[in-house]
Each structure stands twice: as structure tokens, then as C-alpha cells.
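Following up on my earlier thread - several people asked me to post the actual chain instead of describing it. Fair enough. Here it is, all 299 residues.
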Amino acid sequence: MSLAPRAVLVHRRTEYEELLARYGTHGQAAFLLSRRGRSIDEVVRRHERTRQALREVAAAVPLTWRSSSVERADLDRFPFAPEDVVVVVGQDGLVANTAKYLRGQPVVGIDTDPGRNPGVLVRHRCADTAALLRAAIAAGDRAEELTMVEAVADDTQRLLALNEIYLGSPGHQTARYRLGGEGDQGPEEAQASSGVLVGTGTGATGWLRSLWLERGSSAGLPSPCERRLLWFVREAWPSPATGTTKVAGELGQGQGLRLTVESDRIVVFGDGMEGDALELTWGQSVRLGIAGTSLRLVT
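Reply from S.P.:
Thanks for posting it. Predicted structure:
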């Protein structure tokens, strides 16, 4: 007998909750903000809107379903199941934070603050939740398959990201490595740089676009569902031992970019989640390419 679907509500602490965690009381937080020329009132209003949105979304889950909830800080420890429908209640970035832990489960994005969020990934209002949950489990469900990027290390560590994966020094030091594309003619190039960024079409509205604009790249930015990635090396340094000829490119289906570490430590993280990163050291290599898993975003 198959299990009933489970709605998993993903949320994050509000600014108000973070202030209380830091300063202890509402009064102390309000006092310190006022000293800086800010009022706590708007922070409280946004907190209340978010809490109300969570209540409305929870109430829309069918009575025959199971339900659970998880805060962003606990995503790496939450046991997502194949029958889950994931409801992200919050900002666009929270969808990206969640995507790396999923394996094909449908995702519904609910915007808690319309007009403040861009609404690229959280496209829906609380009132739409019930209909979206039904659509998520229906045959031929309405979903976009958003391309993801993956990094796979030679020791089998694996990392997924919806927007981009960054590889570089954990601090502000220079990263040293050898870089080359699979099937390239000639050896890998030794480089010293601020790191390497590999991004998707979803990430083309953020960090990837900044690098693309800065370089004046002739490569078109991919669309979110397009099976194509762009990559850029940040601030490659030319020297007698390091080169700058391989600093940008595209990756299509089946193509990969390989990086071999030549420094004490390089970290690999996705979508700004530095706390959940791969760590590589001397001689280790990592391959970057299009992930076999996509994000199924219910439309």
C-alpha cells in the first residue's frame, strides 16, 4: 500500500526572530535598532506576514495528506522522501537553498511578501496552495524542469546547486589548481585565481550575470530549463607558472569541466550555502557539469 503524499513546508527564520535570538527581548532589539536610526515596526510586520502565510499554507494541506516542516538551517539533516511535495514559503533564494537536497520531488514556491520579492521561483500566493498541491501529484503535472549544476569529486563527494557552484579558497587567499575541459586538446592549465564559478540559466539573474556582463561575453545566457551552463574564472593571475587562456566557456549535455587542486584547501559550495561545502586538498580533482537531477518547479 502506497503512502499518502507528504507536504513538507520549508521556511527560514525571519529577521525579527534573528533579532530576538541575538538580543534576547523585543525591547532590547527595538532600542538597539532605534539607536541606529531604524524602527523595529516594519521588521515585526514582515514577521507577522510570514507567520500568517505559514498558517494559511499549513491549513491548505489536504486532511488525507501527511505534513511536516523544516527550517532552512536544518535542510542538510532533513530526510526528504520520494512521495514528498515540497512547499517553499518565503523568498526566491530559499527555493535554491532547498533544491540541492531534492531528487525530483515537485516544488511549490509561495511568496510571503509580494512586491518585495522578485518572485522568480516563489511565483504563487498562499490562496493558491490547495490547487497547486493537487496539481503537483496529478498525472502530467504542471512543472518546469529547471537545470541544475553538479560537482563530483574523485572521492565520490557530490554537490548540487540550482543557481551556481563556486570553487575557491575558503578565505580571501588565491586558489591554485589545474583546469581543463574533458576532451580538450593539450594539458590542463595551471591557474592562480579568486576561484571558478559555474552557473545555470536560473543563476543567470544573479552572480553569473554579473560575471557575464563584466566580461562582455559573446555567449548567450542560458534559459532556466536549457541544458547548458556557463563558467568563468575570477581574476586569473598571469605568471611564469600560471596561465589565463582558459577563463570562460560553455558546458552542454555530457560535457564536463575538470579542476585538480594544487593548494592546501579548496572549498566547493552551491547557492551561497558555505556551511554545506565540499572540501578538497592537494591532488584531488572535481568534475563540474549538468546534473542528472532537475528541479521540478510547479507552475
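The mean pLDDT is 93. That should answer part of your original question.
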